[in-house]
Design goal:
This is arginine deiminase. The chain has about 400 residues and is of the alpha/beta class. About 30% of the residues lie in helices and about 20% in strands. It folds into two domains: about 10-60 and about 150-400, L-arginine/glycine Amidinotransferase, Chain A (5-stranded Propeller), CATH 3.75.10; about 90-145, no CATH class. α2 (about 65-75) crosses α5 (about 110-120), α2 packs across α8 and α3 (about 80-90) packs antiparallel against α4 (about 95-105). Bound molecules: citrulline. The site of citrulline has 16 residues, from loops.
């Protein structure tokens, strides 16, 4: 079950439908939770169902992270271990509180435990289970959770990278998203769907800042990696050493350095692949990007070279002319507005056929004119989390092209 490109016909994908965690978002913590607005859950769920229906109609098989997780926790008796890993990444410092939270989660059904780990655990739910009162009882108003909600969980793309058959687990840049990757870590180890996959980086504590939204699979032996707000220089060095030299799974890593800004947090918020030779780029950054090519050299280390331009770098790797299509229009206002609405975050389900939010009218029109088939989905609530169709999907299998 391999992924050897960005555009090969998509066969299996992993999603997460947003749940109650969105109702635990509140204004004081929006920035820390990496949201700019509060989505309306009911509508966000309907929109997400629309997304999964579009995928199903296109023949894609869908798996939901929480369902897969419940299966392995029961089957492999992993509940205790999984809860403990979450507690280790939480802020709970008081041993009595930790024990009470652990008992609370252990006593729930597995499905409920998984749901609670994602939606967050409120302090008042655990109060009666604690033997003693603690300092945290007094701070309930400022932060009401022992386990904070994971509202970005529906952006499954960011949790890791499926490259060929193996999985590189992300190391989330922000503390508020760290626990999200535990789900993928366990699935890779225990779920039959990932039986043939090897985890390439198991130590989640290093490298700091490596997120799936920054990695595109250009072709079987080449990755494109965004050097961005979320994926660091150290992570790219580490990735190059591991994939090009140690494991020798890839021949090249093409690095695209983008401005380190919230609006462009990952490469896939400004740049995606549409077809064999077509890419979509947000024009607002075209003069600010720098490109580099990383390859293994004959002494067993990595050579890094600066490239002249994005298109010439892609052309050299693909060995064919490429076309870069600009999102929005040539006016910076429309392009920037639509990029903020994830116009550039397209999900290819086969070469030349992509899923996009319908709100980005100008970009979708341009794509149509360029011969790209666009399947439009509603996303006015989903987009409030700052992600689009590519961010919301973790491909498990694509047909080779
Ligand atoms: N690949 C992506 O760009 N994912 C979107 C992540 C949005 C999330 N609220 C975040 O800021 O991390």
């Amino acid at each position: 079950m391999k992924v050897t490109s960005e555009i090969g016909p998509l066969q299996k994908v992993m999603l997460y439908k947003p749940g109650k965690e969105l109702e635990y978002l509140f204004p004081m913590y929006l920035e820390e939770m990496l949201f700019d607005e509060i989505p309306w859950l009911k509508r966000a769920q309907e929109e997400h169902d629309g997304f999964s229906d579009t995928l199903k109609k296109a023949g894609v098989e869908i798996y939901y992270v929480d369902e897969l997780m419940s299966e392995i926790l029961d089957r492999n008796n992993l509940k205790k271990q999984f809860i403990t890993e979450h507690l280790n990444l939480s802020d709970i410092a008081n041993p009595d509180t930790r024990e009470a939270v652990f008992d609370y989660l252990m006593n729930k059904t597995t499905t409920e435990t998984v749901k609670t780990l994602i939606k967050g655990l409120r302090k008042d739910y655990v109060e009666q289970l604690k033997k003693e009162s603690s300092f945290s009882d007094l701070t309930k108003e400022s932060f009401p959770f022992y386990l904070s909600p994971l509202p970005s969980m529906y952006f499954t793309r960011d949790h890791g990278i499926k490259a060929q058959d193996d999985i590189i687990l992300s190391s989330m840049f922000n503390m508020s998203r760290k626990r999200e990757t535990l789900f993928l870590k366990y699935l890779v180890e225990y779920h039959p769907l990932f039986a043939s996959s090897k985890p390439l980086a198991e130590d989640l504590s290093w490298p700091h800042g490596l997120e799936g939204g920054d990695v595109l699979v250009l072709k079987e032996d080449t990755l494109i990696v965004g050097y961005s707000e979320r994926t660091t220089e150290q992570a790219i060095e580490w990735l190059a050493h591991n994939l090009l030299v140690q494991e020798e799974i890839f021949k090249e890593i093409l690095v695209v350095e983008i401005p380190k800004k919230r609006a462009y947090m990952h490469l896939d918020t400004v740049f995606t692949m549409l077809d064999y030779d077509k890419f979509l780029l947000y024009p607002g950054i075209k003069d600010a990007i720098h490109c580099y090519r990383l390859r293994k050299n004959s002494h067993g280390s990595v050579d890094s070279n600066k490239e002249e331009s994005l298109s010439s770098m892609l052309e050299k790797s693909l060995d064919r002319p490429v076309k870069i299509i600009y999102s929005g229009e040539q006016t910076p206002i429309t392009a920037a507005r639509e990029q903020w609405g994830d116009s550039t975050n397209t999900l290819a389900i086969k070469p030349g056929k992509v899923i996009c939010y319908n709100r980005n009218e100008r970009t979708n029109e341009i794509l149509n004119k360029e011969g790209i088939e666009v399947l439009e989905i509603e996303g006015s609530e989903l987009v409030r989390g700052r992600g689009g169709p590519r961010c919301m999907s973790f491909p498990i299998m694509r047909e080779p092209i």
